[in-house]
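name: query_chain
kind: protein
chains: 1
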Amino acid sequence: MPETSIAPPSAPATRPAKPVSEALLNEKWDRCLSSLLIRSSLGLSFGVVFSVLLFKRRAWPAWVGLGFGAGRAYEECNGSFLRTGREGVRIQRP
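structure:
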């Protein structure tokens, strides 16, 4: 029998781990999107409830509730992106 040399399968190429800053940024974006979804849904549901109970089934309370929820989520996300790692430091905008 002829001798054939079969090379062992090479290990799969390992991808370098994401940098810490990219992982933190991804975590902040995930938190922002989930907060936007939850707060907007809650605002919309409160708007629908108030619309049915108090405002004779008008549409504007639902839209206002949705806007308040989305606005609150936006402010929270904006604050998380502008915040530094140190507590007690306030960032002033120019």
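note: The CA atoms of residues 2 and 67 lie 77 Å apart.
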